[in-house]
Structures are given as structure tokens and as C-alpha cells.
Amino acid sequence: MGRREQTSPRWMRGARRRVWSRRRGRTPAPEGSNVFVAWRDLRFARGRFVLIGAVVALITLLVGFLAGLTGGLAAQDVSAVLGLPGDRLVLAQPDSGQPSFAQSSLDDATVAAWRGTSGVAAVTPIGIAQGRATGAGAAGGAGAAGGADADADAVAVALFGIPYGAPASTVTDLAPTADDEVGLSSEAARALHADVGDPVTIAGTAYRVASVGGDASYSHTPVVALTPEAWSAADQRLGGDGDATVLAVSGSPDWSAAASATRTSASPALASLGALETFKSEIGSLALMIAMLFGVSALVVGAFFTVWTMQRAGDIAVLKALGASDASLIRDALGQALVVLVLAIGAGIAVVAVLGSLAGGTLPFLLSPLTTLLPAAAMAVLGLAGAAVALRTVTHADPLTALGSNR
Q1: Residues annotated as region Disordered (predicted)?
Q2: Which of 43, 53, 239, 391 satisfies CB 3.0 to 4.6 Å to 344 for a cystine?
Q3: In a 10 Å sphere around its CB, with 0-12 CB exposed, 13-18 middle and 19+ buried, how is residue 300 labelled?
Q4: pLDDT in tens for each of the 407 residues of the chain?
């Protein structure tokens, strides 16, 4: 027995013999060996895992809060568009560029052409314009002072011209029956401090509130519904042409042929959101930030577990020398990463839920599975992907390197 083997611990000498035996093909490595070094690390190296857990939790907090803010801004921007009836939304197709709600104008001939198209079941022309409305309290002033107060208290609103009896939806349910009436979304009613029967003033004309419905917003302004005739008159007073902005079309026609024949575009409501400039600019910027945070999460977790795995490369090599399979070591390492990620992401999402519920009244924050569970799942998957990069050290660890003369 050599000098180095005599001074080595008995278990080390046995491990070295097993390594040489396997290399010579005499002793097969046992399969399914279960090792628990990673689990012991979680107990005895709490500081470093608390540190990486805190970092992941903070990133999750940022991602979750941004996702909730993005969802809230999107709801304020497009909820009225998504609430329109029909299978497709038809907008005017410009000579160059993409369709836009702000520039779309559909005359009576275009509306009639769509109604006469084979396969079309229903066509609902809807006018959209931006304006300002004043509630009863602001409108009640007299003289010049009253007019100044009314202008100061005016609320920006989205005026929708909706025919009564249109297919039911969150937006069309607001449609009034008379030209001197309006239907208010819940946010418009709160902003105007108005209820059913109260007067409101829009573009210099007084109306009576006929109904207060659900939440509907367009370009961050609450929806106020008028009859098509009243809307056309208000749009002309505001500088528009009084023509419909969009058609909500139901049925199963040849959409491409009909759109080409009428020089319009026909798209599902979700695909039509790109025609809203505010939606593209706001959501695009926030989505880019969320994507960057996802990338940072994968990088941080991957870097941590890469360094940590390299630090215990010798221990991993010894375990391989003792017969642990690569599969068991990989399961152990990924299990460790999964435990850290689940605890940290869970803590981050819990804080997001608390802050979101508190900020819901002051910020446009949407608290839903899409803004909490979906980002959490994405964070976990990307974190595991980052941790998987560190597994090269596990699968390529050489037992003889760890069992050399320095051990």
C-alpha cells in the first residue's frame, strides 16, 4: 500500500478503488443513487440561499407589479373596444399605413355595402369621439364664474354613438333610447358624480343620465354612450364629420373579399388593438421591461447556481466516485433550485397581491391570475433554465480530480 493511500481516510481509499475498478470495467456504477447534499446545503448554508431568495423575490415583485400595472393600463385603454359585439371590427383602410381608430371614418355607403354582403348577419355602426363632460354640480353655476367653474370641472370622456337594440355587450348595454339621454359607464358616473336622472353637459348640450352600467374605458377615458343621431351632432360640434368610426360585424362572410371591396379592414377585436396608438406605445414599453426582468431573473439564478456548483465540484466528484449517478445529482441540484425559486417567487407574488389590493383604488392595477400566476410560472421556468446551465459542472466532474493527492 502506497504512502498516499495509507494516509488517506478509509472511505477515501475505498472510493478510489471503486473509481479505478469502474474505469477498468470490473464494477458497474450503481444506478438510482440518491444523494441529499443539496438539501443539506439548504439547512446549513441558509445565508447564501436567503440572499439569492431575496433577490429572486425582489425581481418577482418588480415583474408582478409591472404586469399588474400593464394589465390595468390596458384595461383602461381597450376595455371598451374588447367589449364591442360582433365577430370582427371593421375600420377604414387608409391609402398608406395601418388602420387607426383615430382616423377611421365610415360613411353610409360603406355601412350599406357591409350590410349587403353575403354571409353578414348583423352590422352595428359605432361612433367614437373624444370630448369633455360636466356633471350637474359644475354645470349649475351662473354667469362667467359658473362657466369657468364648469370648464375647470369638466371630465375627459369617450363619446360612443351606439344604436339601441344592438347585440348585447358591456358597451352596447349603455345605449340610451332618446337623443336627450346618455348612458354612463361606472367610471364616468364616479368622475361626473352623476346618477340616473341627473343632468350632464357634453359639448354645450345638456343630457339626462338614463343608465349607469359596468366599467368601460377607451384611451384612458370613461365611456359615455349616446344615440347615433345625438353622437353625430356632438361629433360635428367637436370638429368631426359625424360618420361612424367602426362597424361591429357578425356572421361568416368572405372577410378578405368584403374588406377589399369596401376599402376597409376587418379584424377580431383583439387583433384590432394595434389600431390604438396609445395601446401600442404604452403596452410595448412595459412589455419590454417585463421581458428584460425575465432575462435578468434567469441570469441571476443561473449565475448563482453556477458559482455555487463550482464551489462544491470536489464534493460532487466524491459522490460520483462513491457511485452516485449523474441523474441523481442533477435531480438533487434542480430540486434545490426549485425549492429556492418556489419559496422566493411565492413571497414576491404575495407582496404583489397585497400591494395590488391596496393600490387598486389609486392606480390602474389589475390583480388576476394573468398578472400573478402567469409571471410566477414564467419566473420559475426561466430560473430553472438558468440553474440548468450550472449542471455542466455536475455531469463533467472527474472523480479522480477530487480524489487526488490534495484530498
Answers
A1: 1-29
A2: 53
A3: middle
A4: 444 444 444 544 544 455 445 444 444 444 433 446 666 777 777 787 888 889 999 999 999 998 998 888 888 889 999 999 999 999 999 988 899 999 999 999 999 999 999 999 999 999 999 999 998 755 444 333 344 445 557 899 999 999 999 998 889 999 999 999 999 999 999 999 999 999 999 988 999 999 999 989 999 999 999 999 999 999 999 999 999 999 999 999 999 999 999 999 999 999 999 898 888 888 888 888 888 888 888 888 888 877 877 777 667 777 777 777 777 778 877 888 888 899 999 999 999 999 888 886 678 888 889 889 999 999 898 888 888 877 776 666 666 655 554 44
